[in-house]
Amino acid sequence: MAGAFEANNIRKTTSVEKTSLNAWLVVFTAALFFFYEFIQMNMISSLNQDLMRAFHVDATKLGILTSCYFIANVIFLLPAGQILDRFSTKRIILISLAICVAGTFLFGLATDLTIAALFRFMTGIGSAFCFLACIRLASRWFPARRMALVSGLIVTMAMLGGWVAQTPFTHVVEMLGWRHTVRVDAIVGLGIMLLIIMFVKDYPQGENEAVEEQRTQLNHMGYFTTLRKAYFNRQNIFCGLYTSLMNLPIFLMGAVWGSLYLEQVHQFTRDQATMITGMVFFGTVIGSPLAGWISDNMRKRKAPMLIGAVAYLVLILTIIYLPNINFYAYIGLFFLLGLITSTQVISYPMVAESNPLALTATSVSVVSFLTIGGGGVFFIPLFGWLMDIAQQLSTHTASTNSTIYSAHSFHIAMLIMPITAIVAFLIAAMTKETNCKRILQD
To answer: What's the CATH number where 73 sits?
Structure first.
């Protein structure tokens, strides 16, 4: 079976050695789905106080509401890779995007917390497929030597969506109100669906035989065998854990808690706060292709990952403990935070190089599963819970319904990040260097 995979890989490598303009059009039209999902993922940062008032919730409950999006991710990531490796990528994108758009629209109508959580769950289903679909398409349309750069550019598309969910989204909320803004957001999703229908293709012309052969191999191996090969591969697990831990600033400071921290602790306006948190995404916009380009040109994967973890540790400690930081200093620090943690994108080509080509989407789903499961499902609610516990202890009350938190409460919760930066360094040290070449596994 390994020999069949190897022969198929050789055939595929030669067929996409010359990258066409059409390849860029296909992959980056599909990446609009990833862009759109990152708006849905991160808009809570701009809506957190509106949602706390609308649903009468504290930080813990807001964290749980937010995590429903990520719970859907984790549940559907397991089958998502298998589905994308076996069926039409374009068709799966359109179905999952349609579910996401419906969930977004209905979330804007919800008046009950439980119903709102259900619609956030619906929205999160699409996110399980968006990045895997882009990597699946990229692996068919681009040669392996360009995968780190292309992966970085795909992530850049997502980070642009994360930035849109900050200050631009806040301005629209101020003009229209949060419910109308979310409905407009759903309409934008419909426009992206039309572009995907027009421009996305599953694979280059003449590649149908190779793709069908890969699908036949996967069918012969069976669902659980391919799942085992992907999810019990140590390299995949290490890469997934590294990405999960390096991605925490995006989840914690960009998606949910950053703007609340800046408003309540440093007395910035909402516009100023979301402008600062938006710099995390803007930094990642620059950093993702840059990290991919550096890694590709160094012909190394581990070294940039290790350097990124060390720099992340130093920077997050600076943000937490450096006193009297003004607005412009925060702009620079949050930009650097996004830039430095962009080394997380190197995990994706490393995984693609460490697994058979036919298992690309399933293998990359391990990284997404651990990233979403760790950051979205576990750490976002943990952050909110730590804030509430610290607040209760400092005020000596059994509970609090206040939505105003002290600097101490935020700083206790923010200690998650320097601790996980150290763990990310140790995990990167345990990965196997691929030297930017495909290493086939049995």
So the answer is: 1.20.1250.20
